[in-house]
């Protein structure tokens, strides 16, 4: 979620420091707005970015998946299509029967969710590239300076996604992910983000 005040899903925004830098955020309550973003990535870059205004529910999420299917999957080769693993997190709208049935028909057993053929790992932002890299990077760029309007914020989000370097994304999704898996095993599944500094 993106808002004028930068208040969003705090699971995707982590700050680590050995000392307190006393950060502060100036806020203006005269006008408020918000929107949500859906992103799909592959190892070569972002393949889908969609904004929606209202709270996410099962019907709205199903429409997002259908748009992704039409705009992204229809153009893939069969070999690329077979290598896709679709991943949902634990959000309730991602795990309804309509969603699960559609994902099963679309990806067979190659999808991850709370009720999917492959279970989503709860409390795992350290291992999910969208959490530990993509959203953190995007939000840092978007909120680097004060926002003025919803359109300004959307423009910044689009620009930040366009600026993602495919080489960096490929490196992060492969090399960095393996390092993170090793650290996760070292600490027996506990928090390890601070050990990567």
Automatic annotation (TrEMBL):
Domain of life: Eukaryota
Gene3D superfamilies reported in the protein's UniProt record: Ribonuclease H-like superfamily/Ribonuclease H
GO MF annotation terms: nucleic acid binding
UniProt protein name: Transposable element Tc3 transposase
Organism: Aromia moschata
